[in-house]
Design a protein that fits this description.
By secondary structure, the protein is mostly helical. It has 15 helices and no strands. It has helices at residues 8-17, 21-59, 63-66, 84-92, 95-126, 132-141, 151-161, 167-191, 195-203, 208-219, 221-236, 240-245, 256-261, 263-267, 274-305.
């Protein structure tokens, strides 16, 4: 009795065409790589989250416990958590008023540059005028100018106008600092919109104003949302601009970041309140980000691909 051995190439072809064994062998390495990648991402997220978790736990611990043990000991019974730190921060250290000041500063300082940049971005994208490209390069080139080099001349100008210490000074400053990036991002996004839509609108007799408000703006909502997140976070977390243009001229208008910087000195050892103050300052940015996050990636990618 003889046994026929199939050719080697025939066995390989049969294994490759087998839907159970052939495809499974090819997929296992890919699944292992994805599993390793997921585990690595989770490990990195855990490392990044540990300091935040520790700060959050310490913000609810009484002052007597903070100096004696680490935050991880608070997770073992008996539990000693209190809201006293948050109450003291809001009621005694002026954080509540500073929180309102930050809102008065951040909201207009976000809306104004986005509104101006939207008009400029449409003009750079869909309107023909002499020197358009050169002017756009000049605007984008302002991104490399250090903010610190403008503080003294702008402060002198605001002093001559009599607006130092007022919210208007900070609004104008943040508008100027945020416009180059805003124009760059919105121009690239609007420039990537379908050209046929704008041509059809022009053929129907639509003016640039109509096209801007009825076509460009509704189609650019993801870019507006992404830019709004960036600008709001920059203004909300800013300390330098507020100290320079408000400073001692009107301390009652200082934002949350400046009040937090003075928290330890003003309370004579109020370091234990920094955790509670930090999480109060994080509250609004987190709400803004999670509300607009579905537009974030789309707006950034759309504004970064086309130059």
């Amino acid at each position: 009795m003889t046994t026929t051995v199939p050719p080697r190439h025939a066995t390989t072809a049969a294994a490759a065409s087998d839907p159970v064994h052939g495809s499974g062998q090819r997929r296992r390495p890919g699944r292992r790589r994805r599993l390793f990648l997921h585990l690595a991402v989770l490990a990195i997220m855990g490392l990044w989250a540990v300091p935040t978790i520790g700060l959050l736990i310490n913000s609810f611990r009484p002052q007597s416990e903070l100096g004696r043990s680490g935050w991880w000991t608070a997770l073992a019974p008996p539990l000693h958590f209190t809201m006293e730190n948050y109450r003291e921060v809001v009621e005694q250290s002026g954080i509540g008023q500073a929180f309102v000041n930050s809102l008065f500063i951040a909201i207009p300082a976000t809306i104004i540059p986005i509104a101006i940049a939207a008009f400029a971005a449409y003009a750079f994208s869909w309107m023909e005028f002499p020197g358009r490209d050169i002017l756009f390069v000049v605007v984008v080139g302002l991104l490399v100018v250090p903010l610190q080099t403008t503080l003294i001349p702008v402060l002198r100008a605001f002093a001559d106008w009599g607006i130092t210490g007022e919210f208007l000074a900070v609004w104008l400053a943040h508008t100027g600092y945020g416009l180059p990036f805003a124009v760059y991002l919105l121009r690239n996004f609007m420039g990537s919109l379908p050209k046929s839509v704008f041509e059809s609108a022009a053929m129907d007799g639509a003016s640039h104003v109509t096209t801007f408000f009825r076509i460009a703006v509704p189609m650019s909502v993801p870019a507006f949302a992404a830019l709004g997140i960036f600008q709001f976070l920059f203004v909300w977390n800013d300390l330098l601009v507020s100290l320079i243009y408000i400073g001692l001229a009107n301390p009652d208008n200082l934002p949350l970041t400046a009040t937090m910087a003075n928290l330890v000195n003003s309370l004579g050892g109020g370091w234990y309140l920094l955790g509670a103050a930090a999480f109060l300052s994080m509250l609004v940015p987190l709400i803004i980000f999670f509300t607009l996050q579905r537009y974030f990636v789309r707006g950034i990618v759309g504004g970064a691909v086309k130059g």
